[in-house]
Specification:
The protein is α/β, with parallel strands linked by helices. Helices cover 37% and strands 16% of the residues.
């Protein structure tokens, strides 16, 4: 039986002030009898206060991923004091969106354990597949005849996927080193850089795309990315993606799926939005917690 109380945690005390977080907070709060909001940040007094909350709680701890150092601290305390927890972030399939969220076990990206073949549910596959295919159709997305072009997809340099899974501190330098390591002839292969929308780049020795990232990638020979929702969209269109970064596990799309859209379907099983019913929310959280518990054994 799942508990009736939750504690919502983030690192910047914005669960009610940030519109995207607030929408998720409202959904979760109406799904449980009690919801407490707290935060953990670099202030040592705050860390002690937060630790005491975790040590003395019998609630489910819902951790917004935020900056990796703080979510990692929260996860570590939950593990040490046997508090059930789930990670919450914006959803990843069929696209991110502003009303699309997901629960993750253990962490996100390379730390995640629930988007794996052993958690695939054939009972939800047909419905999820329809959702995914409708997304591609509505956006008129399909693989085009590839040209001699490699697209680099940018990520925020302060994003946890950069700080904790790579050594990247400059995308220009990273692209330089990648080209050198792979012996790419830039006279024959066009190099295109798609900056993150929140980190626009006006000048570069490489071509900066003026298209939507997914559109730029449709005719690419292959794409290079660290961790982005775009990866899921692209591999679902059979566009090759070289995923850069290391973690305790492989990136979810590279975990030995016999059909890549089963990965997307499994991810969707843990998604929710403002229309998701409370009992469905609880079921998704319970499933995520059980996977986290199993991973500890």
């Amino acid at each position: 039986m799942i508990k009736d109380q939750i504690i919502l945690v983030d690192s910047d005390n914005s669960m009610l002030s940030d519109p995207i977080k607030k929408r998720a907070t409202d959904v979760l709060a109406r799904s449980f009898d009690s919801a407490i909001i707290t935060n953990v940040n670099a202030n040592p007094h705050n860390c002690v206060k937060f630790a005491n909350v975790i040590k003395n709680t019998n609630s489910i701890v819902v951790i917004w991923n935020n900056l990796k150092p703080f979510s990692t601290y929260a996860i570590d305390l939950c593990n040490r004091f046997d508090s059930d927890y789930v990670i919450i972030e914006r959803g990843i399939v069929p696209s991110q969106g502003n009303d699309n969220y997901a629960f993750y076990s253990n962490g996100i990206c390379f730390d995640n354990t629930n988007i794996s073949p052993e958690n695939f549910d054939p009972n939800t596959y047909d419905k999820n597949l329809e959702t995914i295919k409708n997304h591609y159709a509505s956006q008129n997305l399909h693989r085009k005849e590839p040209v001699e072009k490699i697209v680099f997809v940018g990520q925020l340099l302060f994003d946890s996927t950069i700080t904790h899974y790579t050594r990247i501190d400059s995308y220009e330098d990273f692209i330089d080193s990648y080209i050198k390591e792979k012996s790419i002839d830039t006279n024959k292969t066009e190099i295109v850089y798609c900056p993150h929308p929140r980190m626009p780049t006006k000048e570069s020795k490489y071509k900066i795309s003026n298209k939507k990232t997914v559109e730029e990638c449709l005719d690419a020979k292959y794409v290079v990315a660290v961790s982005s929702t775009i990866i899921y969209e692209l591999v679902g269109l059979n566009i090759p993606v070289d995923i850069v970064g290391k973690g305790p596990y492989k990136f979810p799309t590279e975990r030995g799926w016999d059909e890549i859209l089963k990965c997307h379907s499994t991810a969707l099983d843990f998604h929710f939005n403002s229309k998701t019913e409370p009992e469905q929310i609880k079921t998704k959280i319970e499933k995520t917690i059980n996977i986290t518990r199993a991973a500890k054994k």
